[in-house]
Amino acid sequence: MRIGIDYDDTIDRDPGLFISLIHEMVSRKHDPVIVTAREYEGSDIKDFRDRVMKAINYAVPVYCTGSNAKHVAVDGVDIWIDDWPLIVTHDTKGNRFVPSLDTQEYTGKRFHAFAEQMEQELRANIHKGNFDAWEPEPAHLISEILHHVNKLASALEDGDRSGVREFSADVGNYMVKAFHLYGEGDYEANQN
Ligand SMILES: [Mg+2]
Questions:
Q1: SS3 90
Q2: In the beta sheet, which residues pair with residue 81?
Q3: d(CA 161, ligand 1 centre) in Å
Q4: 20 to 30 A Cα–Cα from 174, which one of 92, 103, 141, 164?
């Protein structure tokens, strides 16, 4: 089992504790690694190399992620020990947490494809009227949403991929309408 252990505000809160834990992990055939968001180069990591690594005989690898998300920078870690859980999943450039690259790529790609389909459905239905200017009462909106959710349900049950693309995008457009008209605050004020 690979165990990723943070340094700052984790090991250095009680080096003796973590040094014994690391020895114990190694003796039980586990694979502890130290993973710090510090930079790769320079004197930044020299202090703990000297203090901590000496105590564990330099037997444990140290990975410096340079503020990149730890789970992306280091493969195969089963358990993380970290005082700052977000730093495991997020990049921390400029003190602002940014979803790690693979998360961004995943959500970005999927969201983009879905948004494109939503636009396509709006264009295909343009002859039915101006969707953007449409201001249905809640009850009307709900019945439209349910109607399209039912179509989506049938397409899902039938394994109809093209139907799932079409009707999920339709549902998405009605969700945007609900969000915009009844979630975002004063619609009239937003229009001016
Ligand atoms: Mg820390």
A1: strand
A2: 5
A3: 46
A4: 103
Pairing of strands 90-91, 62-64: unpaired
Q: What order of strands is seen across the sheet that includes strand 2-5?
A: 62-64, 31-36, 2-5, 79-81
CA neighbor of 88 nearest in space, from 103, 101, 72, 69: 69
| Ligand 1 centroid, distance to 70 Cα (angstroms) | 11
Q: Phi and psi for 91 in degrees, rounded to 5?
A: -75, 150
Q: How far is the CA of 50 from the centre of ligand 1 (A)?
A: 18
For residue 169, the CA-to-ligand 1 centroid distance in Å is: 42
pTM of the model: 0.51
Instruction: Calculate how far, in angstroms, residue 18's C-alpha sits from the geometric centre of ligand 1.
Output: 13
Q: How far is the CA of 114 from the centre of ligand 1 (A)?
A: 37
Q: Which residues pair with 36 in a beta bridge?
A: 64
Segments in the chain forming alpha helices (H)? 15-27, 46-48, 54-55, 70-73, 86-89, 101-124, 138-158, 161-178, 187-191
Residues 144-162: pLDDT tens digits? 999 999 999 999 999 999 9
Tens digits of per-residue pLDDT, 77-95?
A: 999 999 988 889 888 876 6
CA of 180 to the centre of ligand 1 (A): 40
Question: What is the rounded radius of gyration, in angstroms, for the C-alpha atoms of the chain?
Answer: 26
